[in-house]
Structure formats: structure tokens, C-alpha cells
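Hypothesis: this fold can be encoded by more than one sequence.
Test: take the C-alpha cells below, design a sequence, compare later.
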């Protein structure tokens, strides 16, 4: 509806780490990066091996020291006379008093066993894991085994001046939801991509991965959803899209994604809140499920799973501290799957979201202060563009008009206009409260009826 508005929204996605989006940005372009068909899983963690060695080495050393200290009894020193004893052939010059003192020291009643016990590894319930209907309640281990192959690693490659081939821009996650290779992710994950690839585990050997070039089928910035597709002869493992209507605050959930390219990372938490507003604030956006499970850069587009193995949300973003003394922790959001399903279906079939009503205009928000300076009683939207091929072009609305209400409801912003418009269907009419400047520059109120047309927001 507002090109400037959507442009700003997209720019926010590009600055994903600052905005709290879970997309991992590549640190530097690499020219002519090879795209292997097969490669070891170890290749994906090569970039963090140095860090892992440092952290692991320090942690292991500290643990060893603690363990040794716990298993050692330090005897106190005992002073005595310096009376020399006889030479017994071992050069032992210990005095009789010292020997007597040592022999009478109290012995510890108990000692600490630092050897540890034998761990009991309970086998996972394969019947639950392989149940195609997701009818069994799972623990986190069983859930991971069930869905780990359904969340894939995505790479976004973009054109960079001076490079012949697209260079790696960032990485994120996606959820495979059909056997023939359809993947749902976020719109900001595929934004500005000249090439997308998806990395899938080999189902027989999880040390091997396969990378496939992906086609962007459709993307919708209003909901921050996108659908991409990869192709091969063999079917893919896929997750079941569940329903979010029955989700309750406090229930256990798990997040599966690829933070910082650490493939197939599982985090666990609970549902913290329901019905949270979409990040974009757009009337066309989907509501979000708030969770406390960890979301990090690279988790964007990953799956929010209930403990049966159903996808109940698509990971979108988290709140982050932006300075000052305020601290934000464990506040993440996933797009509600019930609201995402019709969007996903439209993107698969049409490449955009259908039956989305709109006025067919672009505009700019006018603050209450600036509106009143011009004699307009309420904040509103300044009309900067009217589509000539939409019914609005014949409604009498003009560029330069200021819209303050739709069907009697005050609409101080573009998003609030969308919120009111989306309550209707394509072909319905709405009444706009409009202020228009006369010859003298004074604004006069008028009512204009506009037929709603279908928008194609990609």
C-alpha cells in the first residue's frame, strides 16, 4: 500500500542483527565459493573450530582441576624436634616425633569417588518417533530424533560489485513441509537474494550433507513469510504443519534451527504469550506466539514445535537490548501457523497472497501535531500516489488528500488503514474521511467511497 513504508520494512530486515532477527549475516564476501553436492557435516562447523577448542580446552581443564581437588586429601604439616635419627639406608632423616605424629593422624571416614558411575542410556521409543500422525507425546530427545531432518540450513547469496559470482550474504533456517521439496521460511531470509541454496542431511549418514540450489516460489513482506523449493528424485523428510488454535500459555515447546550455522540446534522452553502483534504492525501481518526458548542469529525461518512433533509456528525474531540500562532476555516470537497456512498456500500456488483487499494508494503518515497545524483535527495519511488501474482512480480521491478515518474509525497511520481495510473483501466499498486543501490552503472535510481491489504485495 505504501511503497516507502514497505521499503523501510525491508531495510529493517537487511539489518537483521540490529533489529533482532534470527538471520546469520556472513562476515565477508568470498569470491567464487564452490558449491559441493556432498560434503561432511564437519565442514559447516569449520569456522568455529578455533573458538570451540579454546572454550572446550578451558572448560575441560577447569573440570579436571576441580575433579582432582575433590579427590585429594591434603595432610596438615606437623612440626617437631630436629633430633636426628639413625640412618636406615634410605636416607630417611625423619624424627621419631614426626613419625609418631603422622601415624596418629585421623583417617578420613569417607573418600570421594571421582571416577563417576556407569551412565544408563535408555533407547528412544522408535514407535513414537516414526508415528506419521504425531499422536504421541514426546520428550525432547525423541522430538529431536523425529524432526531433525525436516529443518534445513539456508544460504542467501547476493550480487556484490566487483565479484563475478554471487557471494554469501547470510544463513538461516527453513522448514521442509512437503516430500517434494517445498520449504517455508521468512521473507527477510530470501530478501535481495540472487541465489538461494538449501543444505539437507543425508538420511542414512548424518555426517554427510547435500546442498541444493533453491527457487523462491513466493515471498510476502507483510507476514514475513516465503516459500522456496528444491528438487531431487528421492522424497524429502518433512514436518507436519499442526495448528496453533489449541496452543496454551505455559505449554512446553522446542525450537529447531541453525544459529550461527550450527546445524540442527535444539532449544527448549515454554509458550510465554499468545496473539502478539506482527513485527511489521501491518494489518496484513500474522499474529505471533511469544516464547522463552533461545533464538539466535540463524534461527530465522526455523520451526517452533509442540511436543508431539507438529509445527505450530515459524521462528521470526526476538527482542534485543538497544542501549541504556534496559535488558531484554528470552523474548522471542514465532509466526502463528494457523495464520501462516493460507499465506503459504497462496505463495505456493500464485506466488503472492490473493484476496488481500487494498485501496490502491501510497501515502505518508502525518502526525497529530502537523495535522493540527494545517487545521486537520486528527493525525492521518497523506496520499502521495493513486494507482490508475484500480477503482480508486475513479473514486474522486486525489493526491494530496489526507485520510483520517475508514468507515468512521480513526486511522492515523498507514498500518491502521490496512487494519480497517483488511476487515473487508475485494470488491467491497469503504467510506474514507478525507481532508482536502482548497484554493486558500484551508483543509475541508469530505467523504469519499472507494471500491477495494486486490493487492499483490511481494
Amino acid at each position: 500500500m505504501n511503497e516507502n513504508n514497505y521499503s523501510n520494512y525491508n531495510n529493517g530486515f537487511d539489518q537483521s542483527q540490529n533489529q533482532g532477527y534470527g538471520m546469520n549475516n556472513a562476515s565477508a564476501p568470498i569470491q567464487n565459493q564452490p558449491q559441493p553436492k556432498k560434503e561432511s557435516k564437519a565442514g559447516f562447523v569449520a569456522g568455529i573450530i578455533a573458538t570451540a577448542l579454546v572454550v572446550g580446552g578451558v572448560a575441560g581443564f577447569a573440570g579436571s582441576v576441580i575433579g582432582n581437588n575433590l579427590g585429594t586429601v591434603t595432610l596438615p604439616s606437623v612440626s617437631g624436634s630436629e633430633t636426628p635419627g639413625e640412618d636406615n639406608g634410605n636416607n630417611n632423616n625423619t624424627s621419631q616425633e614426626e613419625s609418631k605424629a603422622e601415624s596418629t593422624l585421623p583417617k578420613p571416614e569417607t573418600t570421594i569417588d571421582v571416577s563417576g558411575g556407569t551412565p544408563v542410556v535408555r533407547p528412544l521409543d522408535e514407535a513414537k518417533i516414526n508415528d506419521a500422525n504425531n499422536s504421541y507425546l514426546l520428550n525432547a530427545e525423541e522430538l529431536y530424533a523425529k524432526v531433525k531432518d525436516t529443518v534445513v540450513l539456508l544460504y542467501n547469496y547476493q550480487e556484490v560489485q566487483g565479484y563475478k559470482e554471487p557471494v554469501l550474504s547470510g544463513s538461516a533456517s527453513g522448514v521442509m513441509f512437503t516430500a517434494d521439496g517445498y520449504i517455508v521460511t521468512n521473507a527477510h531470509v530470501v530478501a535481495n537474494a540472487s541465489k538461494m541454496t538449501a543444505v539437507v542431511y543425508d538420511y542414512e549418514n548424518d555426517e554427510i550433507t547435500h546442498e541444493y540450489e533453491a527457487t523462491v516460489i513466493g515471498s510476502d513482506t507483510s507476514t514475513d513469510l516465503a516459500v522456496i523449493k528444491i528438487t531431487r528424485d528421492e522424497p524429502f523428510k518433512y514436518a507436519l504443519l499442526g495448528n496453533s488454535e489449541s496452543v496454551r500459555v505455559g505449554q512446553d515447546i522446542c525450537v529447531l534451527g541453525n544459529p550461527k550455522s550450527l546445524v540442527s540446534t535444539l532449544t527448549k522452553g515454554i509458550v510465554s504469550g499468545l496473539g502478539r502483534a506482527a513485527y511489521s504492525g501491518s494489518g496484513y501481518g500474522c499474529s505471533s506466539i511469544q516464547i522463552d526458548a533461545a533464538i539466535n542469529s540463524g534461527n530465522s525461518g526455523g520451526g517452533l514445535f509442540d511436543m508431539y512433533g507438529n509445527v505450530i509456528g515459524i521462528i521470526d525474531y526476538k527482542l534485543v537490548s538497544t542501549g541504556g540500562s534496559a535488558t531484554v532476555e528470552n523474548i522471542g516470537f514465532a509466526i502463528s501457523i494457523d495464520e501462516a497456512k493460507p499465506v503459504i498456500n497462496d505463495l505456493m500456488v500464485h506466488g503472492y497472497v490473493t484476496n488481500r483487499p487494498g485501496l490502491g494508494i501510497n501515502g505518508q503518515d502525518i502526525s497529530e501535531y502537523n495535522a493540527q497545524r494545517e487545521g486537520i483535527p486528527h493525525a492521518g495519511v497523506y496520499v502521495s500516489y493513486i494507482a490508475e488501474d484500480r477503482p480508486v482512480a475513479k473514486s474522486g480521491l486525489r493526491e494530496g488528500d489526507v485520510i483520517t478515518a475508514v468507515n468512521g474509525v480513526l486511522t492515523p497511520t498507514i498500518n491502521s488503514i490496512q487494519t480497517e481495510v483488511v476487515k473487508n473483501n475485494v470488491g467491497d466499498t469503504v467510506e474514507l474521511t478525507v481532508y482536502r486543501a482548497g484554493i486558500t490552503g484551508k483543509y475541508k472535510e469530505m467523504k469519499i467511497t472507494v471500491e477495494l481491489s486486490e493487492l499483490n504485495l511481494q
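The first strand starts at residue 24 and ends at 25. Residues 1-19, 28-90 have pLDDT under 50 and may be disordered.
Hypothesis status: open.
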